[in-house]
């Protein structure tokens, strides 16, 4: 991959993540007459849009044939009930996490939320090292230390919002459980190393 494409992808990802958080924060704290929208409705609509996008991609891969699309969906979802059930727990946790995302953004400013939410990277890395015996390089450890320092600075400056920060810690824990569950269920058993 060329360096230009890497930086373009990084720029788009930063823009998308930042704009998502700012838009959600604005929509949750907007001072208008009447009730706000339900966060659960926003989560369901977002998931329905993702499902529709996935079905369109499978349809395209099936050479735009409805019969082939129906066969693929039937074979992959209905004919493999245990595989489908394995995804039920992570998808439920993911739904809970997305609902908590709206709660956190309703109570925290966008910058605090964004930095605290990045703790998912730290917890995933630490548990990958401790539970899955993954090795991290020097630059990866340095990046984690810098991330942890940034989170510590943000949390020290806003001690009066301690209750809402603990919600972000809970959300990070949910994210970690979801990632490990997903990893353990979908990877072959010989990938996980036991000491």
Automatic annotation (TrEMBL):
GO CC terms of this entry: Golgi membrane
Key words of the record: Golgi apparatus, Membrane, Sugar transport, Transmembrane, Transmembrane helix, Transport
GO molecular function, one term: UDP-galactose transmembrane transporter activity
SUPFAM superfamilies noted in UniProt: Multidrug resistance efflux transporter EmrE
Sequence intervals crossing the membrane: 7-26, 38-59, 136-156, 162-186
Catalytic activities: UMP(out) + UDP-N-acetyl-alpha-D-glucosamine(in) = UMP(in) + UDP-N-acetyl-alpha-D-glucosamine(out)
Membrane topology label: Multi-pass membrane protein
Keyword Transport: yes
Compartmental location: Golgi apparatus membrane
Family: Belongs to the nucleotide-sugar transporter family. SLC35A subfamily.
Annotated PANTHER family: NUCLEOTIDE-SUGAR TRANSMEMBRANE TRANSPORTER
NCBIfam families in the record: nst
The protein, known as: Major facilitator superfamily domain containing 14A
Upper classification of the organism: Eukaryota, Metazoa, Chordata, Craniata, Vertebrata
Gene name per UniProt: MFSD14A
């Amino acid at each position: 991959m060329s360096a230009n494409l890497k930086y373009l992808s990084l720029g788009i990802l930063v823009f998308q993540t930042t704009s998502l958080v700012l838009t959600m924060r604005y929509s949750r704290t907007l001072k208008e007459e009447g009730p706000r929208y339900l966060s659960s409705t926003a989560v369901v609509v977002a998931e329905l849009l993702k499902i529709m996008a996935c079905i369109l991609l499978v349809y395209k891969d099936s050479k735009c044939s409805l019969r082939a699309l129906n066969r693929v969906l039937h074979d992959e979802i209905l004919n493999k009930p245990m595989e489908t059930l394995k995804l039920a727990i992570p998808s439920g946790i993911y739904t809970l996490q997305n609902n908590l995302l709206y709660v956190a953004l309703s109570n925290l400013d966008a910058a605090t939320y964004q930095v605290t939410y990045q703790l998912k990277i730290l917890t995933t890395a630490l548990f990958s090292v401790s539970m899955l015996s993954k090795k991290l390089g020097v630059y990866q450890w340095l990046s984690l230390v810098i991330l942890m320092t940034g989170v510590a600075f943000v949390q020290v400056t806003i001690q009066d919002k301690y209750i809402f920060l603990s919600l972000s810690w809970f959300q990070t824990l949910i994210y970690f459980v979801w990632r490990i569950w997903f990893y353990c269920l979908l990877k072959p058993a010989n990938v996980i190393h036991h000491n």
